[in-house]
Fold this sequence. Notes:
D-Maltodextrin-Binding Protein, domain 2; six-stranded mixed beta sheet; Solute-binding protein family 3/N-terminal domain-containing protein; two-stranded antiparallel sheet; 240 residues; alpha/beta; Solute-binding_3/MltF_N
Amino acid sequence: xxxxxxxxxxxxxxxxxxxxxxxxxxxxxxxxxxxxxxxxxxxxxxxxxxxxxxxxxxxxxxxxxxxxxxxxxxxxxxxxxxxxxxxxxxxxxxxxxxxxxxxxxxxxxxxxxxxxxxxxxxxxxxxxxxxxxxxxxxxxxxxxxxxxxxxxxxxxxxxxxxxxxxxxxxxxxxxxxxxxxxxxxxxxxxxxxxxxxxxxxxxxxxxxxxxxxxxxxxxxxxxxxxxxxxxxxxxxxxxx
Length: 240
């Protein structure tokens, strides 16, 4: 009987998983060579190796968020990332994490010491860039930013900042580092001011119908990476 139980447990763990994600650099996106890359992509691959799990033949699928989300809700052995663990989502999935903070900061150029708002009310006095029709742009408008400069994409926000067309932008720390790197610069050119939103953390969301042993194996692998420093080393790679 013990042998049968062990074999069944091994069979469940051996079943391939599917991973679904959206285009959200620097966490997950497809590079110029058509390969999936990003902080979360590299982290998931490391967790799979450490846990002895594997992906199915489709590998990591880049999909519209709504479709990926539905797959994770209803299909077993599905990992959805990079997902904020909100109270509304908490009971809909099993979770592996946290893998990092979802902290959105206000940023200015380091050389602009004259731009030094300490809170949201003071920040509204300055020009700020946001992607047109984005959730961020809508929130900034609600927060009272009248000098809102609309741009076409996230990297363009930082381009406008460096050119002096705006004084402020908002971004995650990894996002700011990525977009500055896209412009041939580094995060050291910026100064972080204060948090706009840090309510949630990022996780891997796993479908509820997935064997809990798989989720536990992934969580144990993540905990081990946190303890041995490899998680922080990976994060630092994406901050350069």
